[in-house]
């Protein structure tokens, strides 16, 4: 099989050679060969033991030594002498001697195809056109140890081992053909080196098959017989594999030898002749755009004299011009290009391109630079972190006390209007804008909504007169800076309201005091919102009894509302001392920032709304915990900040230049800049509403509800958790929506683990069928997708729109410990948890499992 | 599905030849075929032959193969059913015992044989299987055109097809829409883009031809339900109208079949609310789906009222049946058909016998709910089986410890 293959390769080579058109011997080569042969013969005869060699042998030797007459003579002499001595078996001797040198432990002899030299390859490149007098002589050590070719070279290699000799002898018989040729820079060739040539093989169209053959050769240790035959073939046919070494004067290695003098002379002569007739510039490809940018476009094509002509070395290709013996240089212009170029030159267009190039050089440079920029897949932005100690900075900062509050209440209670009034009276909104809103609102017949438009910026919100999404705005009093989160009241937008409430420190519950509206509100979102904010951890609530003007500031109405609401709020878990009531009118602005001037309201002498707001204490946040921020919005901030996220820092701190991690996508991003409450800042801490301008992340990895954290303390994602819930509706295994801030995912209650005693937390009933409203239970929740949730946190379970249409809420308290346990212990744990055996820690659980095992 | 041949014998053994005609029939086939059954269908198998010289050639040959079913793989999205098993008939190209996966194709007959093994290995054509077969064959031709529902909220839309027996979530469109911000923002732009993408996706899923040349024929257009909390669905409807009025007049054919309804969220679990809305009820009156949803709601109502006249979970229901509470006069047994798909023969027998008992002995009503419908999913959450009882049964904590 392998034999078969080798043969096939050989044939292929032949075919290739034939196609290449190098078959017929070149007359000039022949002539030169004759000369050399003659001189070798002369040398041989003149030498001490005069010997004779056949013409064929001499040709071979010359070929192998690149027409180096001295070496050839050396070799032939040695050979013939041996032959003379051992006339018995001359052939064997000969082979042995050659083999010894052929089979050194070197890698495969490398074919030397230097016709496409480095110089050649970079011919177009202007930087190689260095004037000869400025060239240094650079000697490059050959990559491989020099081979002692055929034993002719004086410094021929050492003896071969017996084993190698044996192997060689064996292989010799099979060897039919080989194209490999040992590389023989027996001495450095200074002139070539200077031009940057290295003895390494360079790529030629044949290189693949040659390499293949060469490796074969090394494997099978082709005998010299094969080589010889090959060499013969080459000399007679100038096979392409030998192209580089074709017996051409210019190619012969230059030796420090007497002959050298004569050779250069020849070369010079040869050079001189062809030079003028060559249209050198026309066959040269224009410089690459890259090159012209690097060196300026003028450097390239306008240099009339190619380097190889000027240089001391002579390139055979130049000498022989377009002759058929020239291997096609694929790095150069194609023949068609050459023709076209020549034609255009002839027509006198030649000057044009080069001048236009020069003129457009500058522009071209710019274009290309721009193009390169476009090419880059991703532009990495680096922002230098100031490496601040954020907590220390925060301690030093003399900011005002800040407070976030959410405005909640039933739809149309006047939340947005009340807040619009507050902002207007505080001067956070200028008169002009307000007037504009007024005119626009009247235009669509909703004049009374003008104040609400301060916060309801969406076109749909304005058209429908209803708040859809939360809006944040801020204003400052003397000692506090407030952030308002205006929440929608409509039940369809409760998820948005939950998002808003999660940003709040305390809440303002707005109640419509007008007849009928209060009652309907109480059944509606007044109740739901109050429960929601409470379950999300809000302790303090201010009840703004709005639209008092509509009931003529009726004190009895106010008291009735106060009574009902405070009763409800107390049951919902608010401390009485944290509940306060303010009768007010958003439209008129009474008792908001100023005391009402209406005589009918004289009975109220308590604080106005703004005064009530200011009683809020400073809220503390978990500054030293790991960074957590739930993304509220992903948007395009502007040209400078193409990607921004907003949200409130739940815990921890961050600064400009920080690397953050987005969960659950797990992608990291760079904080390009930070805005706190709309103002640029270097850092932000928990409790602040921030906008982060990000870089180095694809927006596809950012969704509202995702959590920003640090890679050092990432938040875990989970698909199941167990949680203790306070039920406000019937709970059973059912589908629910799980909310945490902006996070809103579908899930289902997969198990009712136990119903618990409200006060003690003791298990009342394991695996209840259904959990009644008002009771506390532990349930297991499964989510459809993994979401970042970690203990301790509060989540809201909401099963929307059963046929009654009224959503019902399960409120939850921390899912913490149990959820964690769950994850750590896998399914087994689950079972125990389900059994609600009150396992408090991992160790107690393990104990339990042990016990069971024993049983 | 067309019934070509029916050779079910008294003992429950026998075979039927069926021809699936529409994608939903694949779902029926999925429920009918069980591991252990024999299935004969045409197949294309790649046969590799080795010549004496050692060279190989492979050819695809058409074969009629009978396999003993080992596994079923159903892809609801594309309604494809792959049944794998071991070949039991010999052909020129296959050996007995080789494995093959049959891909059932529309309009290509297949024959399903169920055997009652002597040692109780197979269950044959039991009552549930026969019921399922009836459902599948749909002799009365009562099948209604299915509807397309788009359940959406800001930046999220689920496009699903509601059929008689399954609800297939065809595609989810998710897009980050910037929220409203101080001073405008890209919210409206984002919503418009979201509507555009949703409409494109919807039309693609419906194979709706928007070219004007398709005329005014509104025949093949299924009802389209747009559901969302708030104004998203209405806004989408408006968007479709404006598109129809301006750029793509072909959409006008779609407009009459659009119904905008309310849902609590943009997730699929609010689909039940969608289907309960009056507008949809008139549209899809008396479909199996509507009946099932109604039943589930009744059941949950009972549960909520804590009348003890409803129970769920395998053990609880079995004990209620034992007590005779699921009988004449309002007893309803709700079973998810997922239970019958169980690999375990004993498991299936358990549920089939329970169904038979309720129907034939107790005189109660049995409803097999499709696990691919929303109501079936709710039932699955309850353990796959539930019952409405004729009298209150107090559950006595029978098993809370048994599970540990």
UniProtKB/TrEMBL annotation, chain A:
Keywords: Cytoplasm, GTP-binding, Hydrolase, Mitochondrion, Nucleotide-binding, Protein biosynthesis, Translation regulation. Residues 235-253, 270-281 have a biased composition (Low complexity). GO terms for molecular function: GTP binding; GTPase activity. Residues 11-28 have a biased composition (Acidic residues). InterPro entries: EFTu-like_2, G_TR_CS, GTP-eEF1A_C, HBS1-like_N, P-loop_NTPase, Small_GTP-bd, T_Tr_GTP-bd_dom, TRAFAC_GTPase_members. It comes from the Eukaryota. Residues 400-670 form the Tr-type G domain. It is found in: Cytoplasm. Residues 254-269 have a biased composition (Basic and acidic residues). Pfam families: GTP-eEF1A_C, GTP_EFTU, GTP_EFTU_D2, HBS1_N. Residues 1-28, 167-283, 347-366 are annotated as: Disordered. Its main location: cytoplasm. The keyword GTP-binding applies. GO terms for cellular component: cytosol; Dom34-Hbs1 complex. It catalyses: GTP + H2O = GDP + phosphate + H(+). GO terms for biological process: cytoplasmic translational termination; regulation of translation. CDD domains: EF1_alpha, HBS1-like_II. The keyword Cytoplasm applies. Belongs to the TRAFAC class translation factor GTPase superfamily. Classic translation factor GTPase family. EF-Tu/EF-1A subfamily. NCBIfam families: small_GTP (TIGR00231). This is Elongation factor 1 alpha-like protein. It comes from Penicillium diatomitis.
From TrEMBL, chain B:
Component of the Dom34-Hbs1 complex, a complex that recognizes stalled ribosomes and triggers the No-Go Decay (NGD) pathway. In the Dom34-Hbs1 complex, dom34 recognizes ribosomes stalled at the 3' end of an mRNA and engages stalled ribosomes by destabilizing mRNA in the mRNA channel. Following ribosome-binding, the Dom34-Hbs1 complex promotes the disassembly of stalled ribosomes, followed by degradation of damaged mRNAs as part of the NGD pathway. Gene3D superfamilies: 3.30.1330.30, eRF1 domain 2, Pelota, domain A. SMART domains: eRF1_1. Its main location: cytoplasm. Residues 1-138 form the eRF1/Pelota-like N-terminal domain. GO terms for cellular component: cytoplasm; Dom34-Hbs1 complex. Keywords: Cell cycle, Cell division, Cytoplasm, Meiosis, Metal-binding, Mitosis. GO terms for molecular function: metal ion binding. This is Protein DOM34 homolog. Its cofactor is a divalent metal cation. One of its GO terms (biological process) is nuclear-transcribed mRNA catabolic process, no-go decay. It comes from Penicillium diatomitis. Belongs to the eukaryotic release factor 1 family. Pelota subfamily. It is found in: Cytoplasm. NCBIfam families: pelota.
């Amino acid at each position: 099989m392998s034999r078969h293959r080798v043969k096939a390769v050989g044939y292929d080579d032949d075919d290739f050679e034939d196609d290449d058109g190098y078959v017929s011997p070149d007359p000039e080569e022949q002539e030169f060969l004759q000369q050399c042969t003659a001189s070798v013969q002369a040398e041989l005869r003149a030498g001490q033991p005069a010997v004779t060699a056949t013409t064929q042998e001499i040709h071979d030797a010359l070929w192998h030594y690149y027409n180096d007459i001295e070496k050839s003579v050396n070799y032939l002499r040695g050979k013939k002498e041996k032959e003379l001595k051992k006339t018995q078996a001359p052939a064997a001797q000969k082979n042995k001697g050659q083999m010894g040198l052929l089979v050194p432990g070197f890698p495969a002899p490398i074919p030397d195809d230097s016709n496409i030299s480095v110089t050649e390859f970079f011919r177009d490149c202007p930087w190689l056109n260095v004037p000869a007098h400025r060239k240094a002589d650079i000697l490059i050590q050959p990559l491989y140890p020099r081979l002692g070719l055929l034993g002719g070279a004086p410094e021929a290699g050492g003896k071969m081992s017996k084993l190698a000799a044996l192997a060689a002898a064996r292989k010799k018989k099979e060897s039919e053909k080989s194209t490999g040729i040992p590389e023989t820079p027996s001495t450095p060739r200074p002139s070539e080196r200077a031009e940057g040539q290295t003895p390494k093989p360079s790529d030629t169209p044949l290189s693949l098959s040659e390499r293949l053959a060469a490796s074969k050769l090394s494997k099978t240790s082709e005998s010299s017989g094969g080589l010889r035959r090959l060499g013969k073939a080459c000399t007679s046919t100038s096979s392409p594999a030998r192209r580089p070494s074709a017996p051409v004067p210019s190619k012969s290695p230059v030796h420090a030898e007497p002959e050298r003098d004569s050779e250069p002379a020849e070369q010079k002569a040869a050079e001189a002749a062809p030079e003028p007739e060559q249209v050198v510039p026309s066959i040269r490809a224009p410089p690459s755009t890259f090159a012209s940018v690097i060196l300026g476009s003028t450097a390239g094509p306008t240099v009339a004299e190619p380097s190889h002509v000027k240089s001391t070395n002579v390139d055979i290709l130049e000498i022989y011009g377009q002759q058929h013996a020239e291997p096609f240089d694929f790095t150069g212009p194609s023949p068609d290009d050459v023709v076209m170029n020549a034609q255009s030159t002839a027509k006198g267009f030649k000057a044009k391109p080069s001048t236009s190039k020069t003129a457009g050089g500058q522009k071209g440079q710019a274009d290309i630079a721009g193009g390169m920029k476009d090419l880059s897949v991703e532009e990495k932005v680096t922002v230098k972190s100031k490496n601040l100690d954020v907590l220390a900075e925060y301690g030093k900062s003399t900011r005002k006390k800040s407070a976030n509050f959410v405005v909640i209440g039933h739809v149309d209670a006047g939340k947005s209007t009340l807040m619009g009034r507050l902002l207007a009276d505080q001067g956070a909104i200028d008169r002009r804008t307000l007037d504009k809103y007024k005119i626009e609102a009247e235009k669509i017949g909703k004049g009374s909504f003008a104040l609400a438009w301060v916060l309801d910026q969406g076109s749909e919100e304005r058209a429908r007169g209803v708040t859809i999404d939360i809006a944040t705005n801020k204003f400052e009093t003397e000692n506090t800076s407030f952030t308002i989160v205006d929440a929608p009241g409509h039940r369809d937008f409760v998820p948005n309201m939950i998002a808003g409430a999660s940003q709040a420190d305390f809440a303002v519950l707005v109640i419509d005091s007008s007849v009928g509206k209060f009652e309907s509100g109480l059944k509606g979102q007044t109740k739901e919102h109050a429960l929601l904010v409470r379950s999300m951890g809000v302790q303090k609530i201010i009840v703004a009894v709005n639209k008092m003007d509509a009931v003529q500031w009726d004190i009895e109405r106010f008291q009735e509302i106060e009574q009902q609401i405070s009763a409800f709020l107390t049951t919902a878990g608010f401390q009485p001392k944290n509940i306060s009531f303010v009768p007010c009118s958003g439209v008129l602005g009474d008792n908001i920032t100023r005391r009402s001037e209406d005589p009918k309201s004289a009975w109220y002498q308590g604080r106005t709304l703004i005064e009530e707001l200011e009683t809020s204490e400073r809220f503390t946040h978990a500054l030293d915990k790991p960074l957590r921020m739930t993304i509220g919005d992903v948007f395009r901030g502007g040209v400078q900040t193409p990607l921004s996220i907003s949200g409130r820092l739940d815990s921890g701190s961050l600064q400009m230049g920080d690397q953050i991690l987005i969960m659950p996508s797990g992608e990291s991003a760079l904080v390009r800049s930070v805005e706190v409450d709309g103002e640029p800042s270097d850092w932000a801490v928990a409790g602040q509403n921030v906008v982060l301008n990000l870089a180095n992340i694809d927006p596809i990895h950012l969704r509202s509800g995702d959590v920003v954290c640090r890679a050092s303390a990432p938040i875990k994602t989970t698909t199941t958790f167990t949680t203790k819930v306070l039920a406000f509706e019937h709970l059973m295994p059912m589908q629910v929506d799980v909310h945490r801030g902006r996070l809103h995912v579908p899930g289902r209650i997969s198990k009712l683990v136990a119903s618990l005693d409200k006060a003690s937390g003791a298990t009342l009933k394991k695996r209840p069928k259904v959990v009644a409203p008002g009771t506390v239970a532990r349930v297991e929740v499964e989510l459809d997708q993994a979401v970042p949730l970690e203990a301790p946190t509060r989540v809201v379970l909401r099963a929307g729109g059963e046929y009654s249409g009224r959503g019902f809420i399960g409120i939850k308290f921390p899912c913490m410990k149990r959820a964690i346990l769950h994850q750590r212990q896998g399914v087994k744990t689950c079972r125990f948890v389900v059994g609600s055996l009150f396992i408090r820690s991992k160790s107690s659980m393990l104990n339990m499992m042990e016990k069971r095992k024993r049983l | 599905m067309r019934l070509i041949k029916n050779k079910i014998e008294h003992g429950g053994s026998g075979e039927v030849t069926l021809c699936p005609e529409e994608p939903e029939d694949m779902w029926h086939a999925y429920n009918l075929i069980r591991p252990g059954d024999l299935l004969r269908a045409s197949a294309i198998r790649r046969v590799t032959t080795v010549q004496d010289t050692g060279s190989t050639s492979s050819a695809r040959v058409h074969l009629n193969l009978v396999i003993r079913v080992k596994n079923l793989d159903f892809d609801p999205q594309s309604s494809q059913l792959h049944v794998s098993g071991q070949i039991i008939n010999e052909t020129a190209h296959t050996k007995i015992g080789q494995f093959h996966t049959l891909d059932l194709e529309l309009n290509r007959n297949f024959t399903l044989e169920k055997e009652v093994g002597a040692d109780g290995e197979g269950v044959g054509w039991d009552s549930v299987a026969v019921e399922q077969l009836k459902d599948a064959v749909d002799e009365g031709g009562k099948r209604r055109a299915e509807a397309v529902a788009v359940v959406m909220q800001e930046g999220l839309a689920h496009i699903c097809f509601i059929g008689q027996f399954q609800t297939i979530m065809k595609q989810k469109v998710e897009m980050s829409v910037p929220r409203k911000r101080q001073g405008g923002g890209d919210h409206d732009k984002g919503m418009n883009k979201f509507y555009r993408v949703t409409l494109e996706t919807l039309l693609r899923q419906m194979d709706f031809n928007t070219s004007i040349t398709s005329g005014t024929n509104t025949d093949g257009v299924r009802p389209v339900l747009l559901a969302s909390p708030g104004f998203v669905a209405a806004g989408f409807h408006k968007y479709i109208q404006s598109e129809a009025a301006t750029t793509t007049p072909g959409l006008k054919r779609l407009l009459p079949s659009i119904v905008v309804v309310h849902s609590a969220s943009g997730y699929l679990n609010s689909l039940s609310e969608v289907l309960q809305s009056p507008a949809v009820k008139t549209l899809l009156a008396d479909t199996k789906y509507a009946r099932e949803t109604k039943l589930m709601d009744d059941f949950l109502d009972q549960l909520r009222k804590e009348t003890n006249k409803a129970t769920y979970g395998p053990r609880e229901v079995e004990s209620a049946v034992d007590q005779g509470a699921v009988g004449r006069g309002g007893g309803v047994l709700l079973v998810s058909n997922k239970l019958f798909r169980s690999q375990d023969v004993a498991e299936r027998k358990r549920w089939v016998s329970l169904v038979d008992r309720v129907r034939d002995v107790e005189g109660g009503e049995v409803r097999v709910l499709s696990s691919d419908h929303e109501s079936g999913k709710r039932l699955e959450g309850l353990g796959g089986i539930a019952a409405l009882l004729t009298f209150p049964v107090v559950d006595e904590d029978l098993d809370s410890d048994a599970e540990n």
